[in-house]
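Now produce a polypeptide, keeping tokens residue-aligned:
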Amino acid sequence: MVKIAIITYSVYGHITLLAREIAKGIESTGNEVSIFRVAETLPQDVLDQIHAPPPPKDIPVISADEMKNYDAFIIGIPTRFGNAPAQITNFFDSTGGLWQSGGLYHKPVGLFTSTSSGGGKETTLRSALSWVTHQGMLYVPLGYAKVFGELADISANQGASPWGSVLS
């Protein structure tokens, strides 16, 4: 059995919604999955001003050190102007000790995002690849091989790209 951590940041719950669905898929294969969130860096008064709901009580904040306990990762990154938000990059920055020790070396990682159409989904996911590369992790994109028919169907909005799952 593989232990997989889904690591998320989600102000309004879109990434959390996707993470829960991804977790169901992982569990259906008999593997173990845990969903985590990264620490919030916005002050509470700002969160109140933007009408952000409280974070889900059933999803704990992860520390970089906890990543050692998992075999693989799926990271949910919302899009902020085509980039990962500061909360995600802050978490990535906290993994320096794992980088130094090789603690994440050759562990698989996939990515997913949520944005409006034209919101920069590919650039957001691509921006995370620098961290993935420096950690020596193995990036596992969605690709086209198994989903080309769905992605090429223009009769409806699609929730994916070859880079990873996308909620638009």
